[in-house]
Amino acid sequence: MKRCIAITTGGGDAPGLNAVIRAAALAAHRRGWEVLGVRRGYAGLLNTEETIPLTRDNIRGIAHQGGTILGTTNRGDPFAYCERGETTPRDRSDEVVKNFRQLGLDALLCVGGDGSMRIAHKLHQKGIPIVGIPKTIDNDLSGTAVTFGFDTAVKVASEALDSLHPTAEAHERVFVVEVMGRYAGWIALHAGVSGGADVILIPEIPVNVDAVCRKIQERERSGRHFSLVVAAEGARLDGATVTREEAKPGGVERLGGVAERLAERIAERTGKETRSLVLGHLQRGGNPTARDRIIATRFGAAAVRQVESGEFGVMVALDPPQVLTVPLAEASRMKTIPLDDDTVLTARDLGICLGDE
Amino acid sequence: MKRCIAITTGGGDAPGLNAVIRAAALAAHRRGWEVLGVRRGYAGLLNTEETIPLTRDNIRGIAHQGGTILGTTNRGDPFAYCERGETTPRDRSDEVVKNFRQLGLDALLCVGGDGSMRIAHKLHQKGIPIVGIPKTIDNDLSGTAVTFGFDTAVKVASEALDSLHPTAEAHERVFVVEVMGRYAGWIALHAGVSGGADVILIPEIPVNVDAVCRKIQERERSGRHFSLVVAAEGARLDGATVTREEAKPGGVERLGGVAERLAERIAERTGKETRSLVLGHLQRGGNPTARDRIIATRFGAAAVRQVESGEFGVMVALDPPQVLTVPLAEASRMKTIPLDDDTVLTARDLGICLGDE
Amino acid sequence: MKRCIAITTGGGDAPGLNAVIRAAALAAHRRGWEVLGVRRGYAGLLNTEETIPLTRDNIRGIAHQGGTILGTTNRGDPFAYCERGETTPRDRSDEVVKNFRQLGLDALLCVGGDGSMRIAHKLHQKGIPIVGIPKTIDNDLSGTAVTFGFDTAVKVASEALDSLHPTAEAHERVFVVEVMGRYAGWIALHAGVSGGADVILIPEIPVNVDAVCRKIQERERSGRHFSLVVAAEGARLDGATVTREEAKPGGVERLGGVAERLAERIAERTGKETRSLVLGHLQRGGNPTARDRIIATRFGAAAVRQVESGEFGVMVALDPPQVLTVPLAEASRMKTIPLDDDTVLTARDLGICLGDE
Amino acid sequence: MKRCIAITTGGGDAPGLNAVIRAAALAAHRRGWEVLGVRRGYAGLLNTEETIPLTRDNIRGIAHQGGTILGTTNRGDPFAYCERGETTPRDRSDEVVKNFRQLGLDALLCVGGDGSMRIAHKLHQKGIPIVGIPKTIDNDLSGTAVTFGFDTAVKVASEALDSLHPTAEAHERVFVVEVMGRYAGWIALHAGVSGGADVILIPEIPVNVDAVCRKIQERERSGRHFSLVVAAEGARLDGATVTREEAKPGGVERLGGVAERLAERIAERTGKETRSLVLGHLQRGGNPTARDRIIATRFGAAAVRQVESGEFGVMVALDPPQVLTVPLAEASRMKTIPLDDDTVLTARDLGICLGDE
């Protein structure tokens, strides 16, 4: 049966989005289906002109590129839509349903994080045949073992530590590197273990700055005159909750809070030259690793098979080595690091300070 | 209790060996234990002088380096030991047991592939308290979900495809790239899906060369005047078993069999300019990816915890997200790609030719 | 004055071609000119349909990609044109001139190696206003200090040596790596010095295989049980001229001659396990380095300025820090390595064997 | 004649320092000389115990590593020496001369930037036979065409732009990336041309923020809803001189001034979401590129040949393709970008905004 499906990408971009788009389009073409790309997340469905046909030609060579050819946005919730400049959100979800029908679509694939999956769930309840595809750089989505973007982010952060290591050592300095992770510290933990960090600070473990300084001084005494600290942006210093000016529309997001504050305190208490660095969007935009390309490609193909099966309201998920589905209703819980996680135990076994002792 | 443990690396080298060594040494030091490194695999235990103490200083900065600071060899089976130049193997395993005791060792960590795990099992039966750590670039070991080295090999092969893609397209050529995998095609499959191959040939699926040529000609007709073929070294052309001159001691190993023969036949049948390339040791020696460093580091630390637990004769293994152990007796079975593997299904969904249709 | 210029890329592809195309197109657009891309080298001018307008959109994001969006060919000499399947070349240069006029072109930019520059010179003599842009991976063109492609090739070869180093050391092997350079050994020399090779073999210095083996054995005696040899494909073993089956149209080019033969002889004479590897097209197709992108971009812009100046029959060239022009008549001489080149002296100072002592 | 030479590295570290050390040591060993490494710049000569013999073993495998095995410091001027905690600098240069003699040294190689070369000149005037080796990431040293470290810094910055490009485009944002360059904008200019920046801001051209915003808005109107701005840390917004809190001993250096302020103003005036990123030490510590390794290696070897020649008080310098020497007295002038530099012309030809129109 000839079908027409659409795909959209929402929330922050992650390396692998284009590989999902390409795989879904190829798998659909192979079944003789048409594929539309919806631009700028769900918001693109508020306007039937925001779609482009995804042909063999316009998905060429995109799998290894970062970003998303469809664009994305953090402001696309049709249940609480807020045009730039407006202040009162409106529920425009009925328009999405109407446009979905007017475009003659048989299914919608939506790629996104926890927010996007919640919206997908609500759209499914309003009758749209939807399949979710999980995306989160931070690896903080509970429904899937892992998803694309995370491996690339860990690679970037780990390579940054590799780069800073020799300059830290040559100048006998302390470096504090801030990585992504507001609520879950997966990137910090994995990059820190991979990149040989001396201290790893994650939101799951309240940070005792004294313990951090003790670790640095202990290294000093044993002849290691430098230290590398990696801190998730959501790490909580001395039990405080990080206050963070949130991005305002059209405004400048301030990153760098934790690293800068921690660096100041380390310098003050230990007397060591201390520098901070915020990796920020470098973790997000790069070309996906081979592993992320594969996961993204598998998800794109699996989502199309799911459409073929006729069962909607689910998200594809990785349960290695299988790809299976979980109900959208259950897909969007936060996955933080358990304190008995094997990589946490490994970090402690290596003598890495986790800020708590 | 003060203990002394030893660690050795056997078989072909894989990116991540040094990260295992470092992690095991740090985890042991943290418990106040001493650690010896045994040089050149089990063969190093035939001679008590082939050990070096692994101190904090000689494991510095090694985690991100390829190779192994302990050296390795493919000729170290103490149950069938064959000195260079000799032709009749001898069972020298008793000497290993004797030297193990003479060195005052409490446990032996051995890092290796299926061959090394079989030897470890036999040494354990002779009374050596041993913990195995799996290593295989090819990902063909059944006891563990995955192990270190594979991710790096896939990355290298995938990047090679990325490099060849534009030159293939500019010159309207076919490229055949030969990757590792004598019995299992994991590297070819994953690199091919990641790197956008048009044809992926693996040992698990007998290759119909006509089907391969049809795929190339079909692309030609649709305006794609180039193709990328990735072939595992063990791919069987037209049902034949690959005959391969094996490496002789001191001799020159001939690689490149499959790619070269396939390229000749493609050129002959399709009339397309066709080039072959054998990636060979480039897949093996590079710096480990962040992911491989993490797996290797977790294995090293887990093996030390296993020694602490007092249970031997097992291999550490990854069962995501956990690291657990499996009996050495069961650790060394070959893991080939099931034909319903999700990545195989994905490849077919993308229209990639797997050589069988 | 509104003009229309064309650009074409000929000969083997080199990283940076797309950056030249983009820069030339942008610089021409900025002057209000139109730009046509001619596909597949000069051969594209035998057929007015082989041109595509180069607009802002179809040159987007190409600067960092290998290959050439215009395609290329080694068989495009219009003075001795030989269609695939034909055996007698014909002079079709008059057609090129006719088509150039029919397309209403004001100038032709041709990017290519020594062969392309010779053709450019002859076309200029027939009245086509032409500006050459030098391209050679091998760095063997005399008219310019350096050109794009070379830096990328050296990087790829140097990184290959980095990858092979740890596996060579772990297994106590000799590796022979064959790199590009039929007549000039620039890639071998630079990659070898950068990548820590023990032996570097270039076409400019006849190779005494005994000297090579002595170096390997001397390292063996001093406790270095491995060696890295890098050989240009045109290196001459024991004074012989390399005979090499040349690529035949539609045929399979055999690479790997020198490395394989040398590896066999080293293994034979030294008894060391020796492996060979042919880098081949990996040196050619990858993404250009930042430096190659800059050189290529500068050349593309300079060629357009040259068109504006109205002086033709020249090739742009790098004379650091300037870009200037040289007459096409003088542009195509071969540049081999002088024996007193500073990098040669450096190699000798480091104790690297150059095959002659 | 048996000699003993020493080598020291001063100022900020740069990728390639270890390659210089290795090359100089190998070239000296080959002449039968002894080599001492002086730790922490000239300051190491205030204390004869701060030297280590550089043997074949402790320089193994260092050429491709960032940092410097000798350590470095920004506080080592013996003519105005200021111990940590002290506030009044003292002239301790006589101690350096005395220790140099007491160590029985025949020559000193000093690797450093303009400050180090000035000190070298003064030490030479006090009788120390000294050869300088230029080091500057910023490429702002006039005596040499280029030196090591710069190519790596450009690569890192160019790759950062590559990474930010897709995320900027996906989110329709402006990114401002701050790179090194207090007085000279070479890194910004080269990385910007290579990485496809839309705006490049350098200290040599006062920045008219209105011009920058016009460029961004002009792109917006033509359908490019994102822009990449690269700014040297010394770029002067609206004619102001950047005031910058200088690093205090033991304190935290604040980077990020220019990018953050510029991002705020762009957001304000254009209404575009704008993000800033400070690359900081990522440009400094990474592994040197192949090109930087070669330059560094050539400099190390050339410096030893210079010692052999017996002529001191000079700095080795690159005048492609030669390495020659310039008097130390003339070596330390600042090299800024001339406004008619070919890469500047190229940037303008591509339509890149340089902040002045």
From TrEMBL, chains A, B, C, D:
InterPro entries recorded: ATP_PFK, ATP_PFK_prok-type, Phosphofructokinase_CS, Phosphofructokinase_dom, Phosphofructokinase_III, PKF_sf
Pathway: Carbohydrate degradation; glycolysis; D-glyceraldehyde 3-phosphate and glycerone phosphate from D-glucose: step 3/4
GO MF annotations, alphabetized: 6-phosphofructokinase activity; AMP binding; ATP binding; diphosphate-fructose-6-phosphate 1-phosphotransferase activity; fructose-6-phosphate binding; identical protein binding; metal ion binding; monosaccharide binding
SUPFAM superfamilies the UniProt entry points to: Phosphofructokinase
Cofactor(s) for this UniProt protein: Mg(2+)
Keywords: ATP-binding, Cytoplasm, Glycolysis, Kinase, Magnesium, Metal-binding, Nucleotide-binding, Transferase
Protein name: ATP-dependent 6-phosphofructokinase
Native source species: Eiseniibacteriota bacterium
Taxonomic placement: Bacteria, Candidatus Eiseniibacteriota
